[in-house]
Amino acid sequence: MRRRFALILSVLPVMLFPRSGNPAPVGTEIDAPERLQTLVREATCAEASATSSAKLNGTSLSGVLSGSTAAGTIFYVSPDGKDSWSGRLPIADQQGGDGPFASIERARDAAREKGGTNTIALGKGDYYLTQPIVFDARDAGLILTARCNEAPILHGGPRVRDWGQQADGRWTAPLKLPPDEGVGDLFVNGIRQTRARFPNAPADGDPRKGWLFAAKCNPAIDMREGNTRFCFHAGDLPAMGDTSGLGVDIVGGYQPGSQWGNDTLPVVSIDAAHRTVNTKGTGYFFTAEGSRYFLTGAKALLDAPGEWWYDLAAGELHYIPVDQSLPDSVVVAGTLPTFFKLDGANGMVVSGLEFRDGAPDGSGKFYTETRGFGAIRIEHAAGVKIVGNSIDNVGVGVHVTESKDALIVGNVIADVAGNGIYVGTNYGTFGKSNGARILSNHLHDIGKVYIETAGIWFQAADNVRIADNLIENTAQFGITGGSLWGSNDAVYNAIIEHNVIHNANQQTADGGAIKMMGEQGNPLNSIIRSNLVTGTGHLMNRADGTFWPPGYENTSEWPSPISWAIYTDGKASGLRIEGNTLSGNVTAIGINGGWSNLVVGNVITGGSGAAFRVDDSTGRGWRPPWASPNRIEGNTVSIDSSGGLAAYVYAPDHGPGYVQFAHNRYIGNLNDKSFRISPGIMRSGEFGSLLDLQKAGGDTGSVVVPAE
């Protein structure tokens, strides 16, 4: 989980010194995100002195944590404490008559009784939560933090004990849960195990393995029915006498071979005679021939090491261990998607804690409230600070909704089922979350269950600043923002800068490292600048179940995988994309549907697809009075293969006035097919050289120079 980042610091030293202009020495051995997290914890721990925050001087967090150190009365909590004690001592006294509280709830209530701004300090050890802990307006200004140099760990469910081995090699343990509750995930020694599934998960973790592929329905079904049923090939599914608890994890789209959506849907029934799976679908999700899927959650599917199944009626957990050390392992049943809920708790601080082993809920489809949850969930609050925490193996790391001026700083968020950080709104009320600052976090391995997710996702949030974050290995997006529902969740004046994003879009057919949406149909007035993006990929299968190779792009094919390092979508307009370094991605920069965007001063190298891709499709027929052409100018582009496209423009509705190229510097393997422009304005036809484009008036002042 913790990695060395000497190379990052030598290439782009923004994680620690983003505005100093002084590169870190090549080969510097430093864990940049973890160093910042340590400094944040030291500045905000319970016994921190007023000078602790000075340790952050000279880093990207200088000055952002003033006023966050301990204040008022400190109430201590420990796994060894008692709620009958006063909570005023960090450890039990010699007589054993007083000491810390045992529960966070008791400390919260004591702080409320005391009044004023107080601190709850958690001591080292494991805290197994059985229900979310709720903070409200009575807890305004409360600081919930760790004792200095101690590591409290909060688990999102009970520890499972009393395992017994059965004759068939499976192990079982008693686990009584309320009727409306279940086990979302199972963790053994901090590692997420696999809910019983078919086909089994690939042992080597290859994302192209372990799938079935939907068949063409005969007779055909209406496209709109594809969200409630799909067909399977003869012999694909095992006999299923009991389908209770059965679900399907499916990646699909509305036409054969397209995969633009993902969800986990309950299975209603399986019609073996017509080879049809009937699901409880959503209003958004569709399936078609070639949609890939696996079944999960039924007892009959429990057959491989690492798989588990929970029998709610019997109150019993079933598990096939990977090895025989199970009785000595720490096993946690993840039952809680939310650990802390801060509802109206203005100015509250959560710092220096570790959250882990929660339920995976929290990142579902558009137009639903399944995004609600979050290990730390903030609602209707102002000035909350989430700083220096570790959040692992949960559904969503931090969720902010209809709250302003949230500060999310120096956290490590990893192996989450859905989004790492979500800042936005509730569908229906559409209150905004303005003024959020998301700074110097390390987010990695994002979207382990729900792949339509992001390291950072924001909407209905103006004046947001997202800076100096390290984001790695995401299922779809590194950072995505903007409106999905028009003016209701529009975003304005966002700044996305100095972030490092590696290996985004590893699981989907259409995604990228940084994306902005603009369904509200007016300028976002936002900036994407000085980010480093590498390794953005894609994953998409054809209708026959074979996969396109990594990095593949063919602008003449549809459906076909699409992958962007940075792009705008859905009428997103008025964006400045400036000074980014984009290396080893597929498409580097894309504009889809919007106007008045400026792409300037970026450096693009090592891409397998087009350097620039411009499409008017999501804005077809739309040209508002304020619209001016998109401009792509002053960029440096290296074309490393003879078939590489410098630019692909497809704008039949808006014609050549949709985009202007100027003063770009192209290096390497350009030829008479390096520019593909539609409608055809070049005398050479749809494909042409830079000179052909210039003669047609589509470019001014750009040059081609030979590779060194």
Automatic annotation (TrEMBL):
| Record key words, sorted | Signal
Origin species, per record, is Rhizobium leguminosarum
Pfam families in alphabetical order: Beta_helix
Q: What is this protein called?
A: Right handed beta helix domain-containing protein
Gene3D superfamilies with a match to the protein in the record: Single-stranded right-handed beta-helix, Pectin lyase-like
Q: Which N-terminal residues, if any, form the signal peptide? A: 1-23
The segment(s) forming the Right handed beta helix domain are 375-536
